[in-house]
Design goal:
Length: 103
């Protein structure tokens, strides 16, 4: 899941980069948009690039959060497995000492 999100984010960044150039070139011929020089709409291109970059950053941040959640889940699963293999603790102090031994 994390790998797929990273691939989607990078693919989207490349496609937005190319699409920004295409739209800037096309819109520059037909509009009088600010930052239009030599029939190229630099403002439109930059707005596509900045928007795409922000979306990619959010997707990559979400992937990092999911990666951390997966590692936490794996760690909790390993702790539960170790506790089940040991004798059953009778108090909270024994649970704390068992967790300290695992780390």
């Amino acid at each position: 899941m994390v790998r797929a999100l990273k691939i989607i984010a990078y693919a989207e960044f490349v496609s937005v980069y190319i699409f920004g150039i295409i739209v800037g070139n096309t819109a520059g011929k037909y509009t009088d948009f600010p930052l239009t020089f030599n029939n190229f709409a630099w403002g439109i291109m930059l707005s596509y690039w900045i928007g795409g970059l922000l979306i990619c950053v959010f997707i990559l941040a979400f992937a990092a959060i999911l990666d951390n959640l997966q590692s936490i889940n794996l760690r909790v699963h390993n702790i539960e497995k170790e506790l089940c293999n040991q004798k059953q603790p009778r108090s909270d102090i024994e649970v704390s000492s068992a967790l300290a031994l695992i780390d």
